[in-house]
TrEMBL record:
GO terms for biological process: regulation of DNA-templated transcription. Residues 116-214 form the OmpR/PhoB-type domain. This is DNA-binding response regulator. InterPro entries: CheY-like_superfamily, OmpR/PhoB-type_DNA-bd, Sig_transdc_resp-reg_receiver, WalR-like, WH-like_DNA-bd_sf. Signal peptide: none annotated. Residues 1-104 form the Response regulatory domain. One of its GO terms (molecular function) is transcription cis-regulatory region binding. Pfam families: Response_reg, Trans_reg_C.
Length: 221
């Protein structure tokens, strides 16, 4: 499967580097600093969950996890340790190429710094141009999808945003597992809220979706 996927990626203009096992993959990722990592959960040696955790400790590189059909627990665990997206086997290599292209397009679409590139919500500041989030002057480590999710919610502050809308607008999927959104919301909440168990900014509207509530200071942009 890795050889087939590699061939599709290469024909699409990318430069894939294959690793035969988990430990080699982790070493290559650390040494080469790739633009994106496609990570299978089931690997010889170190498994994909452990590798994802290790990568996230030092890098915000986009990670697409590959899991077996029906392994919902693995999908959720992967998202919880920092994966941006996942694919369930069996999948079409063309679909993986589209996912890679979508993630990299968003990652590389970094416009020049402009005066209107800021979003503010109380002591939370999001610099869209530099792709930096800070709270009370302290920079927060955000993955690509966490950043895009937060930006989308702030730009739609005060409105209930449904999970399927977030899947479509942030992940570019017309359908998908709701746990992808749920886990990412939880990860964002843990970073931006003073008390994540009693959120004041990113609130759940049960049975519908999520709403970002601005404090008295508005958001600009």
């Amino acid at each position: 499967m890795a050889q087939v996927v590699s061939g599709y990626l290469q024909r699409s203009g990318y430069t894939p580097v294959l690793a035969p096992d988990g430990a080699t993959g982790l070493e290559l990722a650390r040494r080469m600093a790739p633009d994106l990592v496609v990570l299978d959960v089931m690997l010889p040696g170190l498994d994909g969950i452990q590798i994802c955790r290790e990568l996230r400790a030092a890098s915000q590189v986009p990670i697409i996890m590959v899991t077996s059909l029906g392994q919902e627990e693995d999908r959720v665990r992967g998202l919880e340790v920092g994966a941006d997206d996942y694919l369930t086997k069996p999948f079409s290599p063309r679909e993986l190429v589209l996912r890679v292209r979508s993630v990299l397009r968003r990652t590389n679409a970094m416009p020049p710094v402009r005066s209107d590139g800021m979003l503010r919500a109380g002591d939370l500041v999001v610099d869209r141009s530099a792709r930096v989030v800070s709270k009370a002057g302290r920079e927060l480590a955000m993955t690509v999808k966490e950043f895009e999710l937060l930006v989308y919610l702030i730009r739609n502050a005060g409105r209930v945003v449904r999970r399927d809308e977030l899947m479509r607008e942030v992940w570019s999927h017309d359908f998908g597992d709701a746990s992808t959104v749920t886990v990412h919301v939880r990860r964002v909440r843990e970073k931006i809220e003073d008390n994540p168990s009693r959120p004041m900014l990113l609130k759940t509207v049960w049975g519908v979706g999520y709403r970002f509530d601005l404090p008295e200071a508005g958001a600009h942009g």
